[in-house]
Amino acid sequence: MQIKGIKDGILVRLEMDEWDIQRGELIDQINAQETFFKGAKLALDVGEQVLHAVDLGRLRDELSEKGITLWAVLSESSITRETALIYGLSTQLQAPRVPSTRNSGGLPIEGEPALFIAKTLRSGNKIVTKGHVVIIGDVNPGAEIIASGSVVVWGKLRGFVHAGAEGDEKAVICALDLSPTQIRIAGKAATAPKRKGKPRAEVVKIQDDHVVAESWRNKGRL
Q1: Alpha helices in 53-197 (DSSP H)
Q2: Is 3.30.750 the CATH classification of the domain at 2-86?
Q3: For the chain, what is the radius of gyration of the CA atoms?
Q4: 24 contact partners, CB below 8 Å, separation of at least 6
Q5: What is the Cα–Cα distance from 29 to 19, expressed in whole angstroms?
Q6: Is the dihedral of CA 206, 212, 213, 219 positive or negative?
């Protein structure tokens, strides 16, 4: 096991072995250097190790209990990288710089970080992340998205979505076809009414202390 300080926290490179052994050695090392790791942001390089949601979720929870934030997982395995993205973790040490775009007046427009997922979320999939989420695909019943920012679904929204999960009442939820089991923005919840007519693109937000859905043509309260 190799441990070194980096710009964004601590990088730990694990040796190739059974995952339970690697995880146990990491926890033992943290327990032995509790003061060093306390409050740290941890990036984990697992090499070719294949990690599934249950593996990464258990480790993240164990680290959190010790006051350590797991923010990145580096891996040569596409399965591990996909699992990391589902948990809202970075898969590289330095996020690519988002260039500013300029409007016709020449003023810079700064972008905001977002988790981008180009696939359908099926029952059992759960996304928990800080920032915004953009899904190119459907969100099926039984799937969950919990984000501190806004959520955009370029497809059918049938599952559960909680935007502004840390209290941001300016967050919105957008979908091409909006029929969720439940949606929440900040501390307010709503269920979609039974649809009448064809699906339409809608945006859901908090307005006048209520959760409302709007299309480009008209408005309706959920």
Answers
A1: 53-65, 78-86
A2: yes
A3: 20
A4: none
A5: 15
A6: negative
Could you give the angle at the alpha carbon of 82 between the alpha carbons of 114 and 99, nearest 5°? 30
* Other CB atoms within 10 Å distance of the CB of residue 184: 20
The full length of the chain comes to 222
- Given this model, what pLDDT does residue 165 score? 92
How many beta carbons lie within 10 A of that of residue 87, not counting itself?
A: 17
The CATH class given to the 112-221 domain equals: mainly beta
Is residue 62 within 8 Å of residue 31, measured between CB atoms?
no
0.85 exceeded by the pTM? no
Q: What is the pLDDT of residues 186-208, one digit of tens each?
A: 999 887 666 666 777 888 999 88
d(CA 179, CA 183): 10
Q: Report d(CA 50, CA 16) in Å as an integer.
A: 11
Residues 22-78 have pLDDT tens digits of: 889 989 988 888 887 888 888 989 998 898 888 888 888 888 888 888 888 998 988
Instruction: Name residue, tokens 């937000």.
Output: 205
Return the domain boundaries, the chain. Answer: 2-86, 112-221
From CA 222, how far away is CA 204, in angstroms rounded?
A: 9
Instruction: List pLDDT tens digits, range 147-174.
Output: 999 999 989 999 999 999 999 999 999 9
Mean pLDDT across the chain: 83
CA–CA gap between residue 81 and residue 2 (Å, rounded): 20
The C-alpha angle 167, 172, 175, rounded to 5 degrees, equals: 140
